Amino acid sequence: MEVKNRIFNWLSELKEKEVPVEVIGFYQELPIRVKTKLLDFDENFLQWEYNPKLYLTASDDGKFFFYFNDPLYKEKRLLGADVTYYGNSFIETTFPKPFSDPRFGRQIVRVTTSEKLPVKFYLLSESGEEIALPVRDISEEGVGVVGEKGFLKVGEPIKSKLILPRGELLLEGKVVSSEPLGDKNRFGIKFSIREREKKLLRDYVMARQKEILSKIRDLVE
């Protein structure tokens, strides 16, 4: 039996028994887990019960994830689906399929930056020039910055200046990833960092987590 048929049978059972499913979405890089019911589905689309937290993740990331106990392999498999519609009555996604997403393998928390808690990043050239790059996300070990495609290469060592709300750091590191982001690229930079510097980054991440969770609470109350 093909995997799509096995998923179809699983969804049929969920709908018939009205069993809530744990749906995982991402908002500002934080995973949000919500139990909700499957309202209807066919071979192409699924309709999910409206939930304000899921609405938030749908508008931000546009993908939902679920864990499926595959009877053939007798193990949990991650499924992913694209959000095609979200409104105040239901949320619609494509039919789910086995998916791989690096966010599920993270060992540390990553968050996006915000206007209230801004972060500035400057690449320092050998000549002393400071090249500003927008910061998309940050963790206690590094940042994701946005630049033109090919501007940085994976494995390239860098020197940088990072300005946080509570301090400024001069950091060395290297480019560890490069992935498309619209018409530009997101470059992942991992710092060679001491504990004091890591604490400053960790404090920022915790402050952003509180800001994000506060917004979610305000939405659902």
Automatic annotation (TrEMBL):
InterPro entries the UniProt entry points to: PilZ_domain (IPR009875)
Q: Where is the PilZ domain?
A: 124-206
Write out the GO MF terms: cyclic-di-GMP binding
Task: Supply the Gene3D superfamilies for this chain.
Answer: predicted glycosyltransferase like domains
Q: What is this protein called?
A: PilZ domain-containing protein
Native organism:
Thermovibrio guaymasensis
